[in-house]
Amino acid sequence: MAMAALITGVKVESLEFPAVVTPPGSTKSYFLGGAGVRGLDIDGEFVKFTGLGVYLEDKALSFLAAKWKGKSAAELLDSLDFFRDIIKGPFEKFIRGSKIRTLSGPEFVKKVSENCVAHMKSVGTYTDSEAKAIEEFRDAFKDQNFPPGSSVFYKQSPNGTLRIFFSKDDTIPEHEHAVIENKPLSEAVLETMIGENPVSPAFKQSLATRFYEFLNEPNFNIAN
């Protein structure tokens, strides 16, 4: 694992995001890019609902270094292009969302899918194919319930395959619950978390800070 000494886990509330994981169907470990809390302001109080984190293939480091090495953490945080390079980069991502408060599957997926549709419409990628994919996405969650500590995992391939996994804790399941073949939707899931209108600014902050440290480590080599 490249940069192993620098890569640490992150704690989000009571949730532990380990430094590395091995996603289902992979023989390689992915490193933790960053993690943060998702919440909403309700009647003047910030209510925390979910801890979010994303794991990336090692080759994400060299891909991002070519453009972003030497930038400050503040410059990374302020650059939508940096986060879009993570979202659209030619490497696999493994996203974990673990619940802090109980959410039903339909309640959870309603907001997520609305955010995804709004993004795809804003960038002109929402067609009949994406509408069908959104219905598949909603259908995957219809019979689910997520108590505190339970998790949703998304495995995203550069070709646009989105695999969805459910777990009653932070254990990574061996088998997916659903597979959706739609690249705009797959990218929109992560875009809504860390893109232009993020549900978790803390997640973006974590990514910017950690990648600044990764890419500006004196021993970092673009060939890694």
From TrEMBL:
GO molecular function: chalcone isomerase activity
Reaction equation(s) it catalyzes: a chalcone = a flavanone
The entry's keywords: Flavonoid biosynthesis, Isomerase
Domain Chalcone isomerase: 12-213
Listed pathway(s): Secondary metabolite biosynthesis; flavonoid biosynthesis
GO biological processes: flavonoid biosynthetic process
Gene3D superfamilies: 1.10.890.20, 3.50.70.10
InterPro entries recorded: CFI (IPR044164), Chalcone_isomerase (IPR016087), Chalcone_isomerase_3-sand (IPR016088), Chalcone_isomerase_bundle_sf (IPR016089), Chalcone_isomerase_sf (IPR036298)
Keyword Transferase found: no
Function in brief: Catalyzes the intramolecular cyclization of bicyclic chalcones into tricyclic (S)-flavanones. Responsible for the isomerization of 4,2',4',6'-tetrahydroxychalcone (also termed chalcone) into naringenin.
Family label: Belongs to the chalcone isomerase family.
The protein's name: Chalcone-flavonone isomerase family protein
